[in-house]
Amino acid sequence: MRNSIKIFSVLILFIFLSAGTMIYSTQQPVTEIKEISFQKTITNKIEISLKIEGAVKYEIIDVNEPNKLVIWFSPIKNVLVDSQLEIQDAQLLRVRVEKVKLEVAQVVLDFAERIPAFNIIPVETGFKIELLFEETKKKVQEPKKIEQTKTEPVIIEEKVQENASGEIPSRKKEPNYYIFVKNGIGRFLQPDIHVNNSFQLYGESGSLAEHYRLDNPNYIFDVIIGRVFTIKNIKFRGSLGFSTWSFKNDGNFQFSLPHPFISNSNRSLSFAENNSGSHNTIYVSPQMLVIKINDFQIWAGPIIGYAEGKITSFSDIDFSDNFPFTSSDISITSKSFVEEKFLSWWWGISGSVEYRFFPSLSLLLELNYINFSPDSGNLNQKINLSRYQLFLGLQLFF
Q1: Given 206, 208, 217, 372, which residue has the most CB atoms within 10 angstroms?
Q2: Which of 245, 244, 227 lies closest to 282 in space, CA to CA?
Q3: pLDDT tens across 83-137, in order?
Q4: What confidence tens digit (pLDDT) does each residue in 227-256 have?
Q5: What SS3 class is residue 206?
Q6: Does residue 233 contact residue 287 with C-beta atoms inside 8 Å?
Q7: 3-state secondary structure of 6
Q8: In a 3-state reduction of DSSP, which class is residue 353?
Q9: Residues 105 and 72 sit within 8 Å (Cβ to Cβ)
Q10: CA 271, CA 253: separation in Å to the nearest integer?
Q11: Is residue 169 within 8 Å of 130, Cβ to Cβ?
């Protein structure tokens, strides 16, 4: 019941966040990138023109790549141009346009070498990006707001500073660090543990069959800190996580006890016991961005962790054997169990779907497969705790 309430609370939070996002989006005017073009002047200056409908602002994003200029425009509802415009100039290779967040469009200029001096100028139809190469470097003035006749004037938030020496203006860094808090459920692949033992009693062989049942599903809490980084235009993220969960491993025990006087006349004795176990782990999870469609991203990668936990199992029993020595004449006087601790490495595979509904906040649905089989000295075998995990959580960037 307690686990159901926690999962229900997460679902309610998701519903409220989704509703708030939809209400916010319906209140905003439609803004669109409608056209993109370029021209090269006789003075070796390249001008990129963006025709934008509606009031927008821009930010220059630092992606730590010296030959890539990234500019974010927001709020942008729709991008109505091709995702890539090939320039194939000796200095500017191409211009790429894409949605990167719910209301953010990204314009990327790929250069053959380092980023030249540039100026971003608002015009009546949108923006003009001037690229000033070595032969035509000049002082770049601060852009001034252009008087517009449109009902929705272009608004400038980030201004390009003076750049007489050709240095690149300062750029706002995209948040790369994140914390991910998630709740979920786990399901064991093989929830049944069977152990068979034999012993000697009254000069004959007896047996004990132990059957433990791991409960499915079980509640898990998980928290991650990590960082997003780019290698050769491919996005990766590295995470360090901590996870904790508990489970039941209720046991059923069936004895076959020899008769004290009659051979080959074993009697039966059975009982059940409620047991429990726990599991705490730290792990690392490197992932690669596999698919990106607008505000949706799919990530995948391995997981490697080290776990500490405990599990309860049967240890010993005392019983009294009374005349006339039938099964019903056997009574248990005491029984004992051992809480066994384990330390072990484990590995797995993780995949997640991320929806970025704010620049610094994402909703993630994550599915993991965990391969984990620690040794049990008391049961004299490995315990298969391999499982699937399904998480829902929020990821905050900073």
Answers
A1: 372
A2: 244
A3: 888 887 778 888 999 888 878 889 999 888 888 888 899 988 899 998 887 654 4
A4: 998 888 788 999 999 999 999 999 999 999
A5: strand
A6: no
A7: helix
A8: strand
A9: yes
A10: 6
A11: no
Mapped onto helix, strand or coil, the DSSP state of residue 252 is: strand
Are both 88 and 214 inside the same structural domain? no
Residues facing residue 132 across a β-bridge? 45, 117
List the end-to-end C-alpha distance of the chain, in Å, as a whole number.
Answer: 35
Q: Return the structure tokens found at 220.
A: 């898990």
Number of structural domains the chain divides into: 2
Contact between residue 397 and residue 176 where contact means Cβ atoms under 8 Å apart: yes
Residue tagged 């923006």 (tokens): 127
Domain of residue 191 covers 177-397
Q: Long-range CB contacts (< 8 A, 24+ apart) of 329-336? A: 330/257, 330/267, 330/269, 332/269, 332/271, 335/271, 335/273
Measured distance CA(173)–CA(117) in Å, rounded: 19
The Cα 120–Cα 163 span in angstroms is: 12
Quick one: 247 and 388 in the same domain? yes
Longest dimension (CA), the chain: 114
Task: List the chain residues with pLDDT less than 70.
Answer: 1-29, 63-64, 134-174
- β-partners of residue 297 are 292, 354
Residue 5 lies in a domain: no
CATH number at residue 303: 2.40.160.20
299 vs 44, 83, 94, 368, 393, CA distance in Å?
42, 22, 27, 12, 15
Evaluate whether residue 19 is within a structural domain.
no
